Amino acid sequence: MSNRATNILVPLVSVILGLLVGAVIMLVSGYNPLTGYTALWNGIFGDLYTIGETLRQITPYLLAGLAVAFAFRSGLFNIGVEGQLIVGWFAAAYVGVAVELPKIIHLPLAILAAAAAGALWGFVPGLLKAKFRVHEVIVTIMMNYIALHVTNALIKTVSDGGDRTERIFTSASLRSEFFQNLTEFSRLHYGILIALMMVGVMWLILEKTTLGYELKAVGFNQNASEYAGMNVNKNIILAMVISGAFAGLAGAMEALGTFEYVSSKGGFTGIGFDGIAVALLGMNTPLGVIFGATLFGSLKYGALNMPNEAGIPLEIVEIVIAVIIFFVASGYIIRLLLLRAANKKKEAK
Amino acid sequence: MEYVVEMLNIRKEFGNFVANDNITLQLQKGEIHALLGENGAGKSTLMNVLFGLYQPEGGEIRVRGKKVDITNPNVANDLGIGMVHQHFMLVENFSVTENIILGSEPTKLGVTNKRDAADKVQALSEQYGLNVDPYAIIEDISVGMQQRVEILKTLYRGAEILIFDEPTASLTPQEIIELVQIMKRLIAEGKSIILITHKLKEIMDVSDRVTVIRKGQGIGTVVTAETDPNELASLMVGRQVEFKTEKGPASPKDEVLDIRDLVVLDYRGVAKVKHLNLNVRKGEIVGIAGIDGNGQTELIEAITGLRKVKSGTIFINEKDVTGLKPRKVTEAGVGHIPQDRHKHGLVLDFPIGHNIALQTYYTSPISKNGVIDYNKINDKAKQIIADFDVRTQGPHELARSLSGGNQQKAIIGREVDRDPDLLIAALPTRGLDVGAIEFIHSRLIEQRDNGKAVLLISFELDEVMNVSDRIAVIHDGEIVDIVTPETTTEQELGLLMAGHKIGDNEKGKLKEGEDQHVE
Predict the structure, then answer these.
(1) Directed axis angle between helix B114-127 and helix B143-156, to 10°?
(2) Which chain A residue lies closest to B351 (C-alpha atoms)?
(3) Which of A88, A188, A303, B285 is geometrically suited to a Cys-Cys bond with A118, CB 3.0 to 4.6 A?
(4) Strand duo B209-214 + B32-36: pairing
């Protein structure tokens, strides 16, 4: 099979397989898969409004996926994207309500605050890894809990005991009249442009800069990097800081675009954790992340329509969505295996 | 003549690359047949074809006179072909027996029956004089013993034809002697052996016939008794090979490296370099001779900034570099060919072009303001690949997929091309074939002749004797003596390395014995 053929065939086949198994699950549970999938389709592409909302849903997934992928490329597993996103969300919302400034200053300031908060949340595990070799997985998981509860406490303080902050000043908002008019008043906002820009930024850093060269080298082989005179510890910290900044930006999307406030949370948003799957689906490449985030965002948002339109309970819907994603992921595994086999053949001479 | 295996006019291609072209190898029953070729000549490919891992594009294979189609390793197994891999395929925390039965576990009512298997392993071990305990855990036994487990594995599966892939690469001299005896025993018991190697001495010692391949081409088969190492080397490399690299007298000038009273600790905090003094001058090669583990590794790491110095000072070109970061040391004019090329020398998952830029990626003209120009990296890589005869498909090929010799040439190219005042070469020829060794030695000497200082660390006495202008003998973290190759012998070096200080009287005596010394 030629490379191009596998490239197209494998994902196609795996999506179809996922849909088939999902259909079986709906059938067994006594629901009509055809109405189910029609509802899913309508939930994603039904009208301009749903398309706008789908794109809005994709936005934070893009950034969360970038965050995980960037750390992976540097040999680090950042499970803390969730926590970094939450502090980013809070920081952006706080800057959004605390001051009123001209938009040209206020909006960038709020966005930067989110990136800085996420970066700080990534810096701590990076530092601990670099200085004391504490595994980043442990620290980032713990940092998630700290983020959740610290922001909840801060929200209470900021809102005088309330559960949510005020709405941000419009000078800090990402809302876009242009997009709203285009999509029948969906909440699609300018954040999607920022997210796509960040895809380019990640690509530039990894493929065009000495920093990216060093990060990848450290990710593959720390001993050789040290031999080559790279500062391994500095690179570990930087990788976590940049990864955290991407995650913080994902939070800014929610704070300045989708919701325009931050409310205290009973649990995690899940976006940060889904970011791991997004990154892995995209094989940790910037372009791959676009694909992964689109798949995740569309299915997640479209699925909301299935209980309404087809009467399928949310639990079944979630299983069906999980099955589809599972098959897409396995498809990638199959492709990876095919590629590896081909590479091995090339290697031996 | 009866052939158990015939590989006739085998051709194997990978894309545009022809790995095997018209190679014929005929294995007689009961012989040890050596397959000789440089690193990357196509030996492993040919054997993988025989073992069913690759399908040839042309030619045919006959086993015991019958044409066969070996589509996968199971077919090879069924035909009685077994492979003893260079890198052992053993589960570290399993016992010998568990490893041997892995994949075809004998069961009784669904429960693995290890006892019967262990008895069978024991019997085989005794029959072939392998002396392996079937219940020993792999991680507890020596490398030589692990290799015998690999041999047992093939015998257990009924192999009549054994392929040994570079079997001596990781063995001690004593273990090599034992292996030779085992191979002879196997032959006496009616097995046939294909021995893949690039070591001429081994071939002369054990093989009956030799098939030589060069750059994927079959060169021919010769009878070992009718040839000699020189002829084999020139068949393999395609030209006359000098075992002793030609070099003129050294003309050393100013000191480049000056080490004073250096103390270095290992990771446990134990002193491995103890008040060591050493200097290397422009235009000379100083060889450090010593047994592995006498402080060589710590010494190099201290010079290059990879390890902290406890006390003492290191000067390079009269500049104090003690305690500087590796990059500062590199920029002070040091090139370093590290002793472990996979651990330190290369980022194996980077393309070879990236690897060639490993010391220069951040400097002009490759980088400007933190932005890398990969076109420049690849241009530079192409030049070094050409200058240093690195056999690769190009700068984009992953370093991992190059053969060891070509990986080493790429590292040496990278370090020499920067034209450092001091070149530290640690075990630069480990695991390489004669052609590559000759090439590397001549590049080291060329550096010297260009007025650079070279510090060579080697465990091979003939390498130290051959290449160095002065030999510093290291023992237990100290330089115990500095001698010149012209006035010393391998015996004297051996004694010094073992820690014997030699008085003047003894020195005279040893010199008298020099004539009797045979290389």
Answers:
(1) 110
(2) A217
(3) A88
(4) parallel
CB B46 within 8 A of CB B53: no
Q: Which residues contact B424 (CB under 8 A, 6 or more apart)?
A: B300, B303, B304, B334, B335, B336, B337, B455, B457
DSSP helix/strand/coil, B12: strand
Helices (H), B422-460: 434-449
Nearest to A249 by CA among A338, A343, A116: A116
Given an 8 Å threshold on Cβ–Cβ distance, is A231 in contact with B354?
A: no
Indicate left, alpha or beta for B323 from its phi (over 0: left) and psi (-120 to 50: alpha). left
Of A208, A231, A343, the CB nearest to B371: A208
pLDDT of B240 higher than 80: no
Query: CB under 8 Å to A178, separation ≥6 — which residues?
Result: none
Chain B interface, Cβ < 8 Å to A = 14-15, 17, 19, 40, 42, 44-45, 48, 53-54, 216, 304, 306, 325-328, 330, 336, 338, 343-350, 354, 358-359, 361-362, 367, 370-372, 374, 398, 400-401
Chain B residues within 8 A of A349 when measuring between CB atoms: 14, 17, 19, 40, 42, 45, 216
The predicted complex's ipTM stands at: 0.84
Residues of chain A neighbouring B345 (CB-CB closer than 8 A)? 224, 227
DSSP B72: S
Q: What is the pLDDT of residues B343-369, one digit of tens each?
A: 999 999 999 999 999 999 999 899 999
The two three-digit tokens of residue A86, written as one number: 């939450």
Q: A16-40 burial, b for 16+ CB within 10 Å, e for fewer?
A: ebbbebbbebbeeeebebeebbbbb
Q: How far apart are CA A70 and CA A127, in angstroms?
A: 17
The C-alpha atoms of residue B454 and residue B247 are separated, in whole angstroms, by: 14
What single letter denotes the amino acid at residue B230?
A: N
Q: Which of B473, B363, B472, B379 is nearest to B418 (CA)?
A: B363
Question: Pairing state of beta strands B107-108 and B58-63?
Answer: unpaired
- Domains observed in chain A: 1-31+312-349 (no CATH), 54-308 (1.10.3470)
Contacts of B200 (CB under 8 A, 6+ apart): B36, B229, B232, B233, B434
CA-wise closest residue to B282 among B314, B303, B253? B253
Residues near B463 by Cβ (< 8 Å), separated by ≥ 6? B287, B429, B437, B441, B456
Can you tell me whether residue B320 is helix, strand or coil? Answer: strand
Q: Omega before B365 cis (within 30°)?
A: yes
Query: Which tokens in the block code for residue B146?
Result: 């692990």
Gap between the Cα atoms of B404 and A297, Å rounded: 47
pLDDT in tens, A281-338: 888 999 999 999 999 899 999 999 999 999 999 888 888 888 888 887 787 666 766 6
Chain B residues closer than 8 Å to A217 by CB? 347, 350, 354, 358
In chain A, positions 330-349, which contact chain B (CB-CB < 8 Å)?
343, 345-349
